[in-house]
């Protein structure tokens, strides 16, 4: 667009531009140019500086405010040569200057420079538009995944339907708090027979959906609702269920993971077979934090020698170990989200710190004990845990009367 109150100047510039192959629109004033630009915004404007009514600088500012979607390259046509005046024009929004009388070679060179800038601007605009579109699609995908994860969280929490059970002379309470939407921790218990119960704490490697799917499958393998599917149980010749020795259960789970699941994930576990009458506990530890017994007098003992995680190598062996619970004693199985929780200085809680927390919470029982433990853990590590936090609390009150 050529804007000049001089009809002769407009014709000279328009003819030069038309011969160069450009489509040219003429306007005799800034007001007429703005009206034309409202209908068909130009790519490039050559405007006289001094015109009746609105000046070239005022026209440039008005055009910038009017045409916002695409950039318009603006060249001021002037007889001014002082640097202060040129600086004022640039501050007003102009991109370049042409000095009267206009040389054809200079005109073509300035327009070529403007075309390069417009080309880069349009390329950037297209890329930004594509980026915005892609970000919009990603946001929609994220929102969809987020909704799915919220539902997955509900489903994973439903794997631990029963958080507390009173067996008369003993109680089991469960804690499961993923650090994200879903996690890789699993806790639970199942009756073995009238006097024994199996309890377990599992931590699948990694975080997120893959780990959560593996915990769902493991929950099926250790289900208390379907003893025929629970691989910890075996049907005896008398038609009743009994439990595999804990070390055999670890070996069986290892075979299942290595041969059937065929996944890169592995998991750690503590499984305990507890006699509700005698208080005898037979356990296996597979790379999981050491189980803790809090005696009735408050002392805390850590048991086990570690062992290999499940799903790393085959064949692998595990050793069982025993403990005896007396009335008033507690057995606590926990994930490393508790023992490896860090304070602001990066110091892990560890077994010594856990002993202190258990001593602090000793006057509570059941779910109240676990809730108090989490609150004190929050005081230590902050509101956001870096890992899933889970645990099984077994409280032995005394011999069960049959």
Automatic annotation (TrEMBL):
4-aspartylphosphate PTM sites in chain numbering: 48
Gene3D superfamilies per UniProt: 3.40.50.2300, PPM-type phosphatase domain
Entry keyword set: Hydrolase, Phosphoprotein
Superkingdom per UniProt: Bacteria
Ranges where the Response regulatory domain occurs: 1-115
Cross-referenced InterPro entries: Bact_Sigma-Reg, CheY-like_superfamily, PPM-type-like_dom_sf, PPM-type_phosphatase-like_dom, Sig_transdc_resp-reg_receiver
This protein's name: SpoIIE family protein phosphatase
Species for this entry: Albidovulum litorale
The organism's taxonomic lineage, starting at the top: Bacteria, Pseudomonadati, Pseudomonadota, Alphaproteobacteria, Rhodobacterales
